[in-house]
Amino acid sequence: MKLNIAYPATGCQKLLKIDDEKILSVFYDKRMGQEVSADRLGDEWKGYVFRISGGNDLQGFCMMQGVLTNTRVRLLFKKGMPNYRERRNGVRKRKSVRGCIVDSQLSVLDLVVVKKGEGEIPGLTDTTQPRRLGPKKVGKIRKLFNLSKEDDVRQYVVHRPLPEKEGKKPRSKAPKIQRLVTPARIQRKRKVLALKRQRAEKNKAQAAEYAKLLAQRQREKRQALLSRRRSSNRTSTSSA
Predict the structure, then answer these.
(1) How many CB atoms lie within 10 A of CB 34?
(2) Which of 67, 92, 177, 226 lies 20 to 30 Å (CA to CA) from residue 19?
(3) What is the C-alpha to C-alpha distance for residues 58 and 143, in angstroms, rounded to an integer?
(4) pTM of the complete model
(5) Is the pLDDT of residue 221 over 90?
(6) Mean pLDDT of the 6-22 span
């Protein structure tokens, strides 16, 4: 079995291939989200604690949180469920997933370091992998640079340099900021609200006009019925 160990503090990952069942048995019958001590992997892992975040079996089917079994099951997925992307509106699909309990049928087990031990692990804790992309949402950019509401967020977007070409200026790429409140956005929102208000007023006026017309029709119908009754009464009295 392969152990894919991630350390979020540095952004690095390390892949270990372990065939010894004595070492792997510490992970068996554990569920996703549980924490496991890493002392059995060796002396260099002393003090480290892992959290089980997922895994794949030999055929590539991933583990799913909440499925309390260590075998593969077929579930009916719909929009909003994990491990499923709706292709058409309202479509449900039956897919195979593996339960959230670890067993020997897994080929890769994903682990996250939640507590660092005494020693450094080469390639995992001793190096730092810089983030390739910066934040995209306004709130996350403000949080990263500790900005206030008055600061211009557009000046703090992280630009990613592109590979340089001979004889051309260096270029960079930046994400389009999401949820950015601009004067155009405020004006558009004001227009949408105005149109909504106009529709409500128009519907209210049309409903009142329809109710007035309906009352008039019912009045005319009632008058016609009364006139027919009166005429029938006159003819009956004249014949008598």
Answers:
(1) 14
(2) 67
(3) 41
(4) 0.66
(5) yes
(6) 91
**β-pair partners for 106:** 57
- The full 3-state SS of the chain, as one line of letters, equals CEEEEEECCCCEEEEEECCCHHHHCCCCCCECCCEEECHHHCHHHCCCEEEEEEEEECCCCEECCCCCCCCEEEEEECCCCCCCCCCCCCCCEEEEEECCECCCCEEEEEEEEEECCCCCCCCCCCCCCCCCCCCCEHHHHHHHHCCCCCCCHHHHCCCEECCCCCCCCCCEECCCCECCCCHHHHHHHHHHHHHHHHHHHHHHHHHHHHHHHHHHHHHHHHHHHHHHHHHHHHHHHHHC
pLDDT of residue 33: 94
What average pLDDT is seen over the chain? Answer: 92
Please give the share of the chain, as a percent, with pLDDT higher than 90: 72
Tokens for 12, please give them: 């690095």
What is the rounded CA–CA span in Å between residue 235 and residue 99?
A: 88
- For residue 165, the model assigns a pLDDT of 87
